[in-house]
Design brief:
Number of helices: 5
Protein name: 6,7-dimethyl-8-ribityllumazine synthase
Strand order of the largest sheet: 2-1-3-4
Oligomer: single chain
GO molecular function: 6,7-dimethyl-8-ribityllumazine synthase activity
Number of domains: 1
Function: Catalyzes the formation of 6,7-dimethyl-8-ribityllumazine by condensation of 5-amino-6-(D-ribitylamino)uracil with 3,4-dihydroxy-2-butanone 4-phosphate. This is the penultimate step in the biosynthesis of riboflavin.
CATH superfamily: Lumazine/riboflavin synthase
Largest sheet: 4 strands, parallel
InterPro entries: LS, LS/RS, LS/RS_sf
Distance between the termini: 11 Å
Order of helices and strands: EHEHEHEHH
Catalytic activity: (2S)-2-hydroxy-3-oxobutyl phosphate + 5-amino-6-(D-ribitylamino)uracil = 6,7-dimethyl-8-(1-D-ribityl)lumazine + phosphate + 2 H2O + H(+)
Helix content: 40-55%
Shape: globular
Strand content: 15-25%
Radius of gyration: 15 Å
Structural class: alpha/beta
Length: about 150
């Protein structure tokens, strides 16, 4: 990429240690690509799409702030004993996808949907699957694709 992308990294803090590992992978990937980034935390995965929408809508009111070129959403949903797991998984993914499609956003979805903490760590670990890094790379790749279609303003 020729221009330096500016990325919003937002992570669900419900499982703080896992969120921090996901963010570590995402930030390392963004740094490797030379992207600038700002990290925000939200209570849980259902709040991830809302946080991105706040950033988009804030441009209607405060245009002096540098806009984000892409978004990386990070979090972890661990199956429990209720059906809430299914709702959180489906609605957080749907919310991110709706935003990406409605506003032509470059969104990297790094939400883990797992059965237990061991699976979460295996997928979050920077030295293993590195889902945070993969989500950041997906975001950067989508920014690059937007440029090819001239959907990118720079």
């Amino acid at each position: 990429m020729t221009d330096t992308p500016h990325i919003m990294v937002v992570d669900a803090r419900v499982h703080e240690d896992i969120a921090d590992e996901l963010a570590r992978g995402a930030v390392a990937e963004l740094d490797r690509a030379g992207a600038t980034h700002i990290r925000y935390g939200v209570p849980g995965c259902l709040e991830l799409p809302a946080a991105i929408m706040y950033a988009i809508r804030s441009m209607d009111f405060f245009t002096a702030r540098k806009r984000f070129d892409g978004y990386v959403a990070l979090g972890c949903v661990i199956r429990g004993e209720t059906t809430r797991y299914d709702t959180i998984c489906a609605e957080s993914a749907r919310g991110l996808q709706d935003l990406a499609l409605r506003y032509s956003l470059a969104v990297g979805n790094g939400i883990l949907t797992v059965e237990n903490r061991e699976q979460a760590w295996a997928r979050a670990n920077v030295g293993s699957v590195n889902t945070g890094g993969r989500a950041a790379r997906a975001c950067l790749d989508m920014i690059d694709l937007k440029r090819k279609f001239r959907l990118y303003p720079r």
